[in-house]
Amino acid sequence: MKKLFTSTFLLGALSLATSALAADITVGPGGNHATIGAAIAAAADGDRILVKPKAIPYGETLTITKSLTIACADEGDTFDCVGNWTFSPSSAQKKLTIIGLRNIAGDIAAGIAGPGVGRSTFQLLSSVVKGDVNFNTNNYNVLVAADSIYGSVWFRYGKVIGNYIDGATEAQVIYTTDEAVPVSTDSIWVVGNKIRGNNTNAHSAIELSSSQHYIFCSNNYLLLNAVTNVFNYGFYMSGQRAATAAGGTNSMVNNTVYDQGNQNFGSGRYAFYLNSPLNNTVFVANLVVSNNANGNGTNIITQAGGVNNYTFAYNIFRGYTFSSIAVPNNGTNKSTSTATVTAATGAAAGDAVNGGPTDPEYTDINLTRGDVGAFGGSFTLANFHPFVNATAANNQGGRVYLLRAPRSVQQGGSIQVKADGFDR
After folding, report:
1. Are 92 and 65 within 8 A, CB to CB?
2. Which of 242, 92, 248, 225 minimizes the C-alpha distance to 170?
3. Contact 49, 43 (CB under 8 A)
4. C-alpha 336, offset from chain centre
């Protein structure tokens, strides 16, 4: 029986929560149904639909209202499809999980706001989508993990973890905004993604505009790929939620922004653009920004109105002036960096490796305190890419897409590690 799981290890103990599925329905040659649509019509909530790969893609435009798992029938493989998929849950707290889809042309989107009390859940895992994933509507918990997406990802609450996202034609590659639910301590996670920006037009690689949820944005590699001096932003920020005494915070750590055009920043090209930030409280650390040039580009961090409550610390910058705003600077930021970045991988060299001004609270994966950018810390980009191993035998069985461990451990104390993944 295949299942999704969340595991917590505490001093060697394992707690495993599973979600049992009621029945399996097969689609394709020799299966129960010839089409995915027919299987969906016959399925009940909780069923699993296993789709067999075939030479000719399934050409289907689908509307899904039930709680289902739709997965490739062959372990470690994908099934091809052409057409838009729409999730329109018929009642509250439905859950749709898609594993091993290769959508050659078409978007995956929410058709309606999640109905009733409590969020409906959408999960896209280990899939390829040559289109957009658009859940820019209320009352969804969205998980997009270990996918290759040739379009954009829009959502209001959830996690975007360990994806390659090619936004070569998109205005916003990852975009999140306010959700019309009561404010809580929920956090939005954007971790371990490789993001290619627009080729020629204005765009933002990650636009974070939620004032109702805290943000944790870590170990992402943002490639500003435009070759013209139009408005290009690595991070476009507005309306982040203020930190509270209850412990909620916004953190952006170990990210890399690289301008492949090797142009000076400025003239509409910014690593950070703060758009009228009101009550924003965000800690930005271990950031690498480089254009592999030594020119004097203008302000890489720019603020447009509002009140700035950002704290930038332990960041390194190459090829521009540090900031146009009064960013609190305790002397840990470095604006004369030698850091260079390899465009294809996001790997940094120079003083980004074992010599940068890394926040001492963040120790990188090889237990040194000097790797800044997407390859530093416990969420280092190398843990996510490539997600699919070149050896087919290594793609069998369960996958872990996110492993959370403490940044530091007190001597004699316990260690708690939480793993999120799925079992095919």
Report:
1. no
2. 225
3. yes
4. 30
- Alpha carbon dihedral 25, 30, 36, 37, in 10-degree steps, equals -90
CA 401 to chain centroid, in Å, comes to: 11
Strands 3-10 and 416-423: antiparallel
**Coil, helix or strand at residue 150:** coil
Nearest 5°: phi and psi at 395? Answer: -95, 5
283 pLDDT higher than 80: yes
Q: Residue type for 151, please?
A: G
Phi, psi of 383 (to 5 degrees): -75, -15
- DSSP letter at 381 equals G
Q: Could you give phi then psi for residue 64, rounded to 5 degrees? A: -115, 125
By CB neighbour count within 10 A (0-12 exposed, 13-18 middle, 19+ buried), where does 16 fall?
exposed
**pLDDT (tens digit per residue) in 113-157:** 999 988 999 999 999 999 999 999 999 999 999 999 999 999 999
| Tokens, residue 93 | 């707290």
Question: Per the structure block, which two tokens stand in for 290?
Answer: 């480089």
Is the torsion defined by CA of 37, 42, 45, 51 positive or negative? negative
Residue type, 266: G
**Rounded CA Rg of the chain:** 22
Alpha-carbon dihedral sign for residues 176, 177, 181, 186:
positive
For residue 308, is pLDDT > 60?
Answer: yes
Buried b (16+ CB within 10 A) or exposed e, 154-179: bbbbbbbbbbbbbbbebebbbbbbbb
Q: Considering only CA atoms, which of 59, 40, 60 is closest in space to residue 50? A: 40
Region of 126 on the Ramachandran plot (φ > 0 left; ψ -120 to 50 alpha; else beta): left
d(CA 321, CA 270): 11
Report the pLDDT value the prediction gives residue 180, as an integer from 0 to 100. Answer: 79
Place of tokens 């399934």: 58
3-state secondary structure of 279: coil
Q: Is 300 exposed, middle or buried (0-12, 13-18, 19+ CB in 10 A)?
A: buried
Separation CA 159–CA 156 (nearest Å): 10
DSSP run (H or E) holding 10 = strand 3-10
**Cβ neighbour number for residue 366 with a 10 Å cutoff:** 11
In this structure, the strands spanning 3-10 and 13-18 are: antiparallel
